[in-house]
Prior knowledge:
The structure is a single chain. By secondary structure, the chain is α/β, with parallel strands linked by helices. 25% of the residues lie in helices and 25% in strands. The protein has helices spanning 56-65, 82-88, 101-107, 168-177, 188-192, 198-211, 228-235, and strands spanning 10-14, 17-27, 30-40, 45-49, 67-72, 93-96, 113-114, 127-132, 140-145, 150-152, 215-217. Strand 3 (30-40) and strand 4 (45-49) form a beta hairpin. 40% of the residues are buried.
Amino acid sequence: METYVPLQTLKLVDENIWIVDGPNIIFKGIPFPTRMTIIRLTSGDLFVHSPIALNETLRQEIDALGSVAHLVSPNKIHYWWIGEWGEVYPEATKWASPGSHLPAEMQGWRFDRDLTNQSDNAWRQDIEQLIVRGSRVLEEVVFFHKSSRTLILADLIENFESHKLNSPLLRFLMKLAGNLDPDGKLPIDLQLSYWGRHASLRKAVEIMLCWEPEKIILSHGRWYEANGTAELKRAFRWVQGIHADEKR
């Protein structure tokens, strides 16, 4: 799978928010591009969502932005490099999402605090957050950067671009899973994990829609630089009661 070059360098999204694209990782035999988000809080501290592999050049760029204060795992899959970052930034708080404690301990390190449905005082002025519950497999904490109107997701929407998939088999599998651009969404296996529990997911999506995001950053695939609210409706039209804009 082709990556989103240049890698491991800051890319400005809006004022005080950046993404960094990383190298592919192999998960269940499939290559996934990686992406993290960095927000500079009003305090000047940095909030790092789903950290990617860190190198010295990237570290220098990040240190020029401010002090890394928060290392955030949005779900139990997106925790992998937090232990490594914690060694580089020992003063930073390592934040755990539901289900991520045991995988971290198996790597030999521990989280410091748990994420909840309430934004922590350290970033309440800048970021809203919500635990999306209901899945039998994966619960995710989503974040909304208020000033830039940016929703930050990990796996709740995946949006792989066909031209970046070098394998015809991989293109077929992604299409089958339902997460090919321009109709990226939660892959079918994770959709099934919400079977019989749509009410909880629907409530979470309705809250995200009330935030009226203009942009949606995704960890995997093309992210949405505009029309965020419409893309959110489209991506979750499979949930009973959530309908895409018919004019799209």
